[in-house]
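ugh ok fine here u go
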Amino acid sequence: MSLASRIGLRRQPGWPATLSSRRDPVVVLRPLRRSDVDAWRDTRRRNAAWLVRWDATAPPGSPSRPVSFRALVRRLSASARAGTTLPWAIEVDGRFVGQVTVNNIVRGSAQFASVGYWLDQDVAGRGVMPRAVAMAVDHCFTVVGLHRIEVAIRPENSNSLRVVEKLDLHEVGYAPAYLHIDGEWRDHRLYAVTREDVAPRGLLHRLEHGPSATA
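structure:
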């Protein structure tokens, strides 16, 4: 077996991982899997109008994104094995309701990643997504060994902006034409959090108990 093959089979720090919260509603993050296909398709179909404005798209002339859910899972699973992605499904009370994905993991002197997410409108407004993102960030800091997590949000996306506001993340910049979203290059506001910002108890504890409860 080649060195590359052996590296590809090696378990990455902190993956696979299943995370859960204790408060109601019970939120669980677990690896996205091929058996989610029916629930994923149903959720995306019901929420098409709710999600389309915020979905990433392929710029003209670039390779197309996966056209099937199984292809998406294969790509994300390969990235997880390579240590560059953590692709979680979100469950609320045992039901599939969306995704949180830690993308673009950079090691070396950076120890950095970004987080993207989407949620079923049926459970919006219940505090699910702030809790899910907080759980993912804490796992990245405490188990995966990352130092900084970034979230990029379109200025028009009020729902996503409420997530970072509830998490009390710092706005660190503005990126013109940052990502290709809904068919065009879109500007994004950039938010970030470091391990020191939420030490020693973590982002979920700060979310549940207030910023003064971190220390």
